[in-house]
Amino acid sequence: MASALRGDYMVKFNGILWTTDGDTRAWGGSYWGANQSCLYNALLAANKFELINPMFKMYSRIYESCAVSARQQ
Known about the structure:
Elements: H1 34-40, H2 53-61, H3 63-72
């Protein structure tokens, strides 16, 4: 996780960087909740706060888009 979770974006939950068949999710990009949490849940207990930054950055960047989506729903 330390080699993959230091960038600007969250990584794909099932394989991180080492998924060899590409992004084969058939359900689209709306997977950021429950599936991603399995990567991040233990990082606070492991004292690896710097690895959580991509998650907070992503949610901060999409805040306005989520607000628009919520109004449209």
